[in-house]
Amino acid sequence: MNRVEHVTLTNIARGMVPQLFQREYEKVLDNIKDTRVSATRQRKITIEIMVTPDEARHVLTHEVRATCKLPEAVGAKGFAFTTLDNEGNVIATLNDPEQLSLIDQLEEKQRKMGGK
Fold first, then answer.
1. Is residue 75 one of the residues assigned to a domain?
2. Do 64 and 85 belong together in one domain?
3. Dihedrals φ, ψ of 34, to 5°?
4. Tens of pLDDT, residues 95-115
5. Does pTM top 0.70 for this prediction?
6. In whole angstroms, how far apart are CA 37 and each of 7, 21, 46, 75, 89?
7. Residues forming beta bridges with residue 60, ordered by sequence position
8. Domain of 101, in residue numbers
């Protein structure tokens, strides 16, 4: 008499469920370590098991899939200033060309006070 082995979560689809789960869980852990992503947002792992019987309802085909839903990284923000170059073309710069530098501010203050 043959030994009957019942289908379980750990042996269905050639025992792939734990491996598929582990792969998705590692993605979750990497996402948690990413400082660009919210630390407290929920992560979700979904394991799907599709069971398809044959016409005689005797043979079952199992398809197993694991996926995860992760919060996205927050985009980086920055700014630039627009001005005109010497030929009148609009360009973008990282510093405000209308803002006086610290040295220019000191020199202007000295001029106003009668200094050099």
1. no
2. no
3. -70, 110
4. 777 776 777 778 878 888 876
5. no
6. 39, 22, 20, 9, 39
7. 53
8. 81-112
